[in-house]
Write a structure and sequence with these properties.
By secondary structure, the chain is mainly α. The protein is built from 11 helices and 4 strands; from the N terminus they run αααααααββββαααα. The protein folds into 3 domains: 201 residues, no CATH class; 85 residues, no CATH class; 101 residues, no CATH class. Strand 1 and strand 2 form a beta hairpin. It is globular and about 70 Å long. It binds zinc ion (2 copies). The site of one zinc ion has 8 residues, from loops.
Length: 407
């Protein structure tokens, strides 16, 4: 067991915690064609019989890496793989490091008899656990980012994905040039992320307000106390990213509609995990969409829709920027409130249709934004509203018929 081996194993931990296949592919590529890597021109390649340098292994790993890079840019694919990845990554880490062990040091290891025990196994087992732990940490951090920008309106998800891809490539090069520096850099970065996360949780806790009646701590935008259900005297407005705004609300009903559009409990303000319309809040037990109702919610969305469609016509006269601005505004204020109640990836065809539509309108929007922007908003709004209504209709049919009999 050499120092270089240990540094390589430890250094590849952060790479595998970010991506499953890309680091594996880069390693295989390096071992087969070291001459193409800057600074490693003189390094001999592994023998052609080595498993990792076989053509089909390279092709499979390369294709999987490419799929991984593309798939990670899609919110649905990312969500689908999110939990499985925390186990796939340590497996990929072990597979690659074991095959390396096999190719490079098997002879050395055979000579050094550690009484059937090799300390390298300890390092590898530790490494796999670290990869799992870091991959979980990464998943939680991405969840936290998703909370801010759930539908990737601001492209936060896509930007972090590109950053991660480049980190893997950069980290890999750094690892083969100066392994130790890479290990130190990543340790610092991880410590920083843990710190940010802790601070965010602390800030949320600090923002909570004590109930005037029972003393229970409530979210700053809670309408009623989570414990005693008393109406709170001080209710803060909620921002477009679900954050606390520094202004108090005046209209309770409008504020509650706002909470609903963030898929938060209209009473206690806590986030609801499920995207079902009719459910009870886990924190205060309030029945979701009972007050305000689905009808009031849609009416409120419609009102915003007329305003934003009108605004998009005016904005459309500014080339490119006008169209983009109105698309972002519509996403945040019109589509997301509906989308939050519709299961992700529920209809692939609608998604493809919307992607094509967006692209077409983007092209037309460059010159004729004042037409493209409103038409784009009308069509997409109509699609999301219909989906939301059909989702509401399925479970609300009996509710509305019950309503009719009582009125
Ligand atoms: Zn209370
Ligand atoms: Zn609640």
């Amino acid at each position: 067991m050499s120092i270089v081996q240990i540094v390589t194993i430890i250094g590849s931990i952060p790479l595998f915690s970010l991506r499953t296949f890309l680091p594996a592919f880069l390693t295989a590529l390096l071992l087969t064609y070291p001459e193409y890597f800057p600074g490693l021109e003189g390094v001999p390649a592994v023998s052609e019989e080595a498993f990792i340098s076989r053509n089909w292994v390279l092709i499979v790993l390369g294709s999987l890496s490419l799929l991984e890079i593309i798939g990670d840019k899609n919110t649905d694919v990312r969500n689908l793989l999110k939990n499985a990845e925390t186990y796939l990554k340590p497996i990929a880490f072990l597979a690659i490091n074991l095959s390396l062990l096999d190719e490079t040091s098997v002879e050395v290891l055979q000579e050094v008899q550690w009484a059937a025990f090799d300390p390298l196994w300890v390092v590898l087992a530790f490494g796999a656990l670290m990869v799992h732990w870091l991959a979980t940490l990464r998943r939680d951090f991405l969840d936290f980012l998703e909370d801010i920008d759930e539908d990737d309106n601001l492209f936060i998800g896509r930007i972090t994905s590109w950053i991660e891809d480049s980190l893997v490539v950069f980290g890999f090069l750094l690892l083969i040039w100066t392994g130790i520096i890479m290990v130190i850099l990543y340790a610092t970065a991880i410590a920083f992320f843990v710190f940010i996360r802790k601070r965010y949780d602390k800030k949320l806790e600090e923002q909570k307000l004590k109930c005037f009646n029972c003393g229970e701590k409530n979210l700053p935008f809670a309408v009623k106390c989570v414990n005693c259900k008393k109406l709170q005297p001080q209710i803060y407005a909620i921002g477009i990213f679900g954050q606390k705004k520094e202004e108090l609300i005046v209209n309770v009903e409008k504020h509650q509609l706002n909470l609903l559009s963030h898929r938060k409990c209209a009473d206690c303000g806590n986030k609801l995990d499920s995207n079902r319309l009719f459910q009870n809040c886990h924190f205060c037990g309030n029945a979701h969409f009972q007050s305000p109702t689905v009808k009031e919610f849609i009416k409120n969305q419609d009102k915003k829709f007329y305003k934003i469609a009108g605004l998009s016509f005016l904005l459309g006269f500014v080339p490119v920027v006008g169209f983009l601005t109105s698309a972002v505004i519509a996403n945040i204020h019109l589509f997301s409130p509906y989308r939050r109640y519709i299961p992700k990836g529920s209809s692939f065809l609608t998604k493809v249709f919307i992607k094509i539509l967006t692209f077409l309108f983007f092209v037309v929007g460059i010159a004729l934004g004042f037409i493209a922007a409103p038409v784009y908003i009308v069509l997409r709004y109509y699609i999301w509203k219909k989906k939301f209504q059909s989702r509401a209709g399925k479970s609300a049919n009996f509710l509305s018929s019950a309503e009719k009999t009582t009125t």
